[in-house]
Amino acid sequence: MSDFNDDPIGEALNIAPLEKKEIEKTEIVPVNEIDSTVSDFENARKNIYSMIDTANEAIDNLHSIANQSQQPRAYEVLAKLIETSIKANKDLIDIQEKMKQIRDMANEVDNKAKTINNNLFVGSTKELQDFLKKMKPDKWKMTK
Question: How far apart are CA 56 and CA 59, in angstroms?
Fold first, then answer.
C-alpha cells in the first residue's frame, strides 16, 4: 500500500490514512474598549464552537481507528477526547451565563436612579418649613 508512505502510524496499525483538513486562522483586531466584552464573548464563543466541531470530527476518526485496531489505548484516547468535548460544551454554557450576567449588570447600572448630592431650594424659610412638614410630619416638629 503506497498510501502509508507519509503516515507511519497508519502503516504500523495497518489502517488507511485520514484526510487532512486545513484550519482557518483568525486575525486578532484591536477593538474599542466599550465593545471589547461583547467581541471577546463572540470570539470565545466562535472558538469554542470551532473546537467542538473539530473534536466531533476527531471523535469520529478515533472511533474508526479504535474499531480497526482494537487497542485499549485507542479506546482510552477516545474516551479522553469525548470527556474534553463535553467540557468544551459546558464551557460554552458557562460563557453564555457570564455574558448574561454582564448584560444584566450593565442594564442594572443604566436603570439605577441617579444620585443627586447638591440640591438647591429657592424659596422662603416658611415655604421650606411647609414643604418639610408635608414630607415627614411625624419627624419634623416646628417650634415657634
Answer: 5
